[in-house]
Amino acid sequence: MRFLEQDMDRFSILRGKNCFITGATGGIGREITRNLAANGCNLFLTSRTSSKLNDLKKELGIENSEVMIEKIATDLTEIKNIEDAAKTAISFFGKIDILINCAGIYKVKSLNESTISDFEDNIYVNLRSAFVFSKIFSEHMKNSGWGRIVNIGSSSCYGGAVNTSLYCMSKHGLLGLSRAMAVELKKDNIRVFCISPSGTKTKMGLSIPNQNFETFLNPAEIAEYISFVISFDGELISDEIMLKRINMEA
């Protein structure tokens, strides 16, 4: 019973925090927004598709009437869009306490078939957007003496596969960015996490070649894990985490 009470107290630290999440309407992003809203976080949602954002905001508002929710549809391949989204969120909430960099694109192409445009799109969405949002919102976190930045990585942060050079490149970069920020920002009580799931039961997961989709992770479990990890506020830190299904080979 004592453990359950402590667990409930731990999640209470998230209540009232302002969270900015990219890729909010994707398979993992949607589940993260649901979980954070259930834990009392106010949410600023971004995605490319306005209609999906409208549906998600409506759904979350019905289930969590006490939280504030705002949204913006934007294309993160353009730096101006990234900066405008950040400004809009700051205007709405005043500050951001939790940043979830979940936006990502996955192109299955051989090295020779990949174009410079493909290269730029992967870097701009999967890596540059995380860098810019972290740069902007970490200033708010420094001022308030508390913050969380979660970068959604991948098992591709640690390996490579045929026809995935673009994606693996960007995810390796995201891991490096996370490691550096974790060291740099810890003095300001800002904790940075790179959480790297293996294959996940999402639309993106369906595009992974030569894999058994039925063995993939449940995105709802990933979301639960993220809320659990960022709720710790003592001395314990697990800043680099790889998530696998229990029956997967190592």
- Based on CA atoms alone, the radius of gyration comes out at 17 Å
Q: Give the name of the CATH superfamily.
A: NAD(P)-binding Rossmann-like Domain
Inertia-based shape:
globular
Broad structural category: alpha/beta
- Uncertain ranges: 1-6
Distance between the first and last residues' Cα:
35 Å
What does the largest sheet look like?
Answer: 7 strands, parallel
Q: Number of helix segments?
A: 8
Report the CATH architecture.
3-Layer(aba) Sandwich
Give your account of this protein's structure.
The protein has 250 residues and is α/β, with parallel strands linked by helices. It has a single domain, classed as Rossmann fold, CATH 3.40.50. Helix content is 48%, strand content 15%. It has eight helices and seven strands. The chain has a seven-stranded parallel sheet with strand order 3-2-1-4-5-6-7, sandwiched between helices. Strand 1, helix 2 (27-38) and strand 2 form a beta-alpha-beta unit. Helix 4 (79-93) packs parallel to helix 5 (116-144). The chain is globular. The chain starts with a helix and ends in a 7-residue tail after the last strand. The model is unreliable at 1-6 (pLDDT under 50).
